[in-house]
Amino acid sequence: MSPDNWNDSSLAATLLVMTSTAPATATPEDILRGAGLRVTAPRVAALHAVGESQHATADDVLSSVRAELGTVSVQAVYDVLHALTDAGLLRRIEPAGHPARYERRTGDNHHHVVCRACGTIGDVDCTVGHAPCLTPSDDHGFVVETAEVTYWGLCLDCRT
After folding, report:
1. What range defines the domain where residue 112 resides?
2. 133 assigned to a ligand binding site
3. What digits encode the pLDDT tens for the residues 50-106?
4. At residue 119, what are phi and psi to the nearest 5 degrees?
5. Do residue 82 and residue 64 come from a single domain?
């Protein structure tokens, strides 16, 4: 599906609401312990911030963590985001021309749609086959684990 062919119903049908692979009843503390990480206030606050913002920038997380905890350094937030990403609790995405974003939806191989006008990002489920959704014509001996696809277009708000 190319952005030129998007319409309200096809776009709405492919966008997903952000979900985490952790059970709905799991607390941030449970999630951290389950990943073998120490439970710290900045880590808990960062998980909460990313969960609330879906595709949060580091600045979004910093603002939220500071609102919750008070003084926290920029470096501390970047360290937390790095640790949570390395542990597989967050996924870092980097749409071209946009700051890195963090999301809690991990463990699957979904893709993203980005509005060229306002930068809104939505999740798009893997549309064909099993992960990684795309089969390269030549894998050069690699074992392909994921494929990253970014759809670009205009969201409903920016089209009106």
Report:
1. 1-19+107-160
2. no
3. 999 889 999 999 999 999 999 999 999 999 999 999 999 999 999 999 999 999 998
4. 85, 5
5. yes
* Strand-pair category, 15-16 with 91-93: unpaired
Q: Is 158 annotated for ligand binding?
A: yes
CA-to-CA distance for 153 and 155, rounded, in angstroms? 7
105 and 21 Cβ atoms separated by less than 8 Å: yes
Element (H, E) at 47: helix 41-53
Give per-residue pLDDT as tens, 108-131.
Answer: 878 899 999 999 999 988 766 565
Strands (E) located in 5-52: 15-16
From the centroid of its chain, how far is CA 124? 11
For tokens 């960062």, name the residue: 46
Look at the chain and report how many structural domains it folds into: 2
Angle CA(27)–CA(64)–CA(55) in degrees, nearest 5? 75
What CATH code is carried by the domain that includes residue 38? Answer: 1.10.10.10
